[in-house]
What does this fold into?
Amino acid sequence: MEQHHFVNRYRYDKATAKEAMGAYWKWKNRKAFVALGVMVAFFCVLSPVFETVLFLIPALIGVIGFISLYVQMTQSIAVERKNIANTFRTDAPWLKIEIDDEWIHTTVSNTKKKVPVTDIIRCQETKNMFVLFLKGQMTLALRRDSFEAGTPEAFKAFADLLTADRKK
It folds into this structure.
């Protein structure tokens, strides 16, 4: 049986936090985004059909919902950045992630954690990274350009294999 081993090391800077947290927020709120989108479209279509602008009020409420989710995401990223700066005394700490067939080992500064790979619920791909969603509403990002062991393609295949039965 093939053994897997991946090492990913990068600085957890503002751009990385924004991309990783953005992926998490989009996934976490996907049902709200769909419901708000349907609501806006539905009432925008009804307005000219019934020749009244009253239907634009609920459409506007849907747009406000989108804006609210965006503001919450932006505030969440700011809080994450502040917590990192306070905890690690730097705005961009080095993050090392090692993943094998059984464990995920993370090292940030001198803080080490270990969780089983079975805690991976989903792997979301973004432009520059893979964002792992773990049990307990945790996320972990691996940068595509920062693999010291393994390749992005091999990691994607590994993550797909781990999450194949959990896709929702």
Notes: The two ends are 28 Å apart (CA to CA). The chain has a mean pLDDT of 91.
